[in-house]
Every structure is written in structure tokens, then in C-alpha cells.
Amino acid sequence: VHVDQDHFYFDISAMEKGEQMLKAEFRVFKLKRTHVSGRSDVKHFCKVEVYEILESGSKPQKKHLIASRLLSLYTEGWEVFNVTQTVSKWVGNSSSNHGFLITTTRVFNNRIEHNLVKFAKSQGALQESRNALLVLFTNSNKRRSSSFVPSSTSMSRRPRAAAVPSAKNQVTACHRRELYVDFRAIGWSGWIIYPSGYNAFYCRGSCLFPLGESLNATNHATVQSIVHTLKLSQDISTPCCVPDELKSLNLLYFDDKENVVLKNYKDMVATRCGCH
Q1: If you average pLDDT over every residue of the chain, what do you get?
Q2: Which of 76, 161, 252, 257 could be a cystine partner for 193, CB 3.0 to 4.6 Å?
Q3: Quick one: which of 103, 96, 152 has its CA closest to 123?
């Protein structure tokens, strides 16, 4: 058994007085293996555990398990852990914040192979967009993001977390708005008998990363938002806010032969919006 450990500390002192934290996410970027072992006894998965460090400098290190999952050795990407309860405790008592510890465990046939799993944490050698983050969602409609601070840095030199404007501060997140269509105003009253108009609704707003459940995002939109956020391609924009569900509308109208017809027209009313 071999265990690799990574220590991540975040300064959360930038939270304002009276601000209530609703959710906290620890986001870390798992790097792809550059060397693929040809040995058949190497497992393709490793066990990753996230701990809260209870006391700094104590040996053996006192820690509390927050989350655990299996990860493939050969994939690369963001891993998101819900750390709301732990960070809530830190907000109430800042002295209890000693950071997170990530351990990766691999079991071989009584053999040890080092550095199978690496997480982005070096601010100099890696892209800044891949640095570990602690994202706080608060009742002030701000999404606070605290960048990883290397554990070797002294406490007095650790920067404060900066407030990152959320979609609500600049452009409202994707949602449904009213759109009343007056058939007389668009010149259709000559052939439509009833109704005289209807509320079609429309979708408006941004689809910024991270895409929450309320945005009804497709898997494709989620991937696109990540590519856009990491600036991997200048041509990739954010996903679009469009109708996600539509319903039909009955129209009573005159046809070309001036017969009165009642017909059900599909996809006339936007009932839900989403990021696509």
C-alpha cells in the first residue's frame, strides 16, 4: 500500500459580516498520467479521500474524513467535493481552519509505485486556471472563490479570498420571462379568430460555469462551459439560454378556403428554459 498526500489551505477571511454561507465546494484538478505503466498488476483506479485537518503540526496528523471516491489513473479533469459542513465550522471559528488533506491510495502486489496521481497545485508550473479552488455560495448572491495557498507559505503572507462577481451581479442567470404576443400587432388578426394573443414566454440570461441544477443544462453544455472557462479555445462561447420544454397551443382560424379550423400547434409556449 502506498499513500500520497497533498495539503491545501484556503483563507476564507474575506467573507463579510452578516453574510450567510449556503454551500461550499472544494475543486481540485486531477492531472493526467504522463507515464503509463506496462505492468499488468497495476490497478487502473485509485482511492481518493479528502480530510479536514484537525490540528496543524500534530504527529500523527489528526484528521476527519469528508469524502471518498474512486478515480481512474488515466483521466484528467476537475473533481468537486461538497465541503459545506466543514467550511461552515471554519466560518464560525477561523482558528479551526487548518486546511484540507487529499490522500490517494493504490494497492499492488506488495509493490510500491510513486506519483501515480497528481493534483494541480503549483502556481508557477501549471496554468492558473487549474489551481485548486474553494468556492463559497452565499446569501448575498456572490460566489466567493479562494485560490489555493501553498502550505509552505507563512500565515501572515496568505492573501485574502477575493469576491468573484456571480452571474446575478452582472447578467442574470438563464431563466424564463414573459412575452405576450398580440396577433393584431404582428398582423395575424385577419386570419386568427381566437385567441387574440397569448403568452409565449422567452428565455434570457447567462450560462456561466458552474452550471447549477436549476439551469437544466445538457451534458454537452456542461462540457462546453468548462472548455470556455479554461479558455482552451478562443472560438468556444458559453452555452446558450434557450427553451428546454415547450407546449402546444390551440388556434381557431380561417384557412385558405375561409373554412373555420381548430388546430393544435406544437411548440408554441416555452414552459422551461435551460443551457444548451
Answers
A1: 77
A2: 252
A3: 152
**Is the pLDDT confidence value at 261 over 50?**
yes
Domains along the sequence of the chain with CATH: 2-164 (no CATH), 175-275 (2.10.90.10)
Tens-digit pLDDT profile for residues 155-171 = 333 333 433 433 334 45
Confidence of residue 141 (pLDDT cuts 50, 70, 90): low
Alpha-carbon distance of 113 to 274, in angstroms, equals 45
Report the distance separating Cα 30 and Cα 50, nearest Å.
Answer: 13
What is the sign, positive or negative, of the torsion defined by CA atoms of 273, 239, 164, 202? negative
Tell me the per-residue pLDDT of 39-51, one tens digit each, with 9 for 90 and over: 544 556 778 889 9
Can you give the C-alpha Rg of the chain in angstroms?
A: 26
C-alpha distances in angstroms, 260 versus 50, 150, 195, 253, 263? Answer: 68, 75, 14, 6, 10
DSSP lists the bridge partners of residue 260 as 254
**pTM of the full structure:** 0.50
